[in-house]
Design goal:
Elements (H helix, E strand, L loop, with lengths): L2 H15 L24 H12 L10 E2 L2 E2 L1 H11 L8 H7 L1 E2 L10 E4 L8 E7 L2 E4 L8 E4 L3 H6 E6 L4 H10 L1
Antiparallel strand pairs: 1-2, 3-8, 4-5, 4-8, 5-6, 6-7
């Protein structure tokens, strides 16, 4: 392989392989504090619905379709379902998103993790009440995981948002 092809292929492979390092997720416990879907802003509602609809779909390296997803392919797919175009990789998604403090996370936000040595390399869709939907690793399926899981808590690298809640504010104002 020519040196220039190697210089292009290696970073691409490393960025796509990063999602493969995520640990097993515990099964979701019922929680009562997740906001009802109808009270979420329309784009956020669609992002969460699209991600949750893919639970059980196999992880596929480089995947971004219903036949299989890697972590950033899943988040890109879920945003596309809400009519939003976002970058392809976890790192690019974090750079492009509007930063959200962890205490202000809302369903539909993205949560980012640094699981290896090269910065942000894993991402999921926040679903509320401390849990998120993600495509964890090769041989696994799209599933829920928890921000308070020690493995994820130690590797949490921030959160971001690509959607706006102006549609919710307008709906509330119109209802008065």
């Amino acid at each position: 392989m020519p040196r220039w092809q190697l210089a292009v292929a290696v970073p691409l492979i490393l960025s796509l392989a990063a999602c493969a390092g995520a640990p097993a997720s515990r099964s979701p416990a019922p929680r009562d504090t997740v906001p009802p879907v109808e009270t979420r802003p329309a784009p956020a509602r669609e992002i969460v619905r699209a991600a949750e609809a893919m639970i059980g779909t196999p992880y596929r390296y480089g995947g971004a379709s219903t036949s299989g997803f890697d972590c950033s392919g899943l988040t890109q797919y879920a945003h596309r379902a809400a009519g939003l175009a976002i970058p392809r990789t976890a790192a690019a998604q974090q750079r492009a998103a509007s930063a959200v403090p962890r205490a202000q996370l809302r369903p539909g936000d993205l949560v980012f993790f640094a699981t290896g040595r090269n910065g942000v390399d894993h991402v999921g869709v926040y679903a509320g009440d401390g849990r998120f939907v993600h495509a964890p690793a090769s041989g696994r399926v799209v599933s829920y995981a928890y921000l308070d899981d020690p493995w994820y808590a130690q590797r949490f690298a921030g959160a971001g948002r690509f959607w706006s809640d102006t549609s919710l504010a307008a709906a509330r104002h119109a209802a008065r």
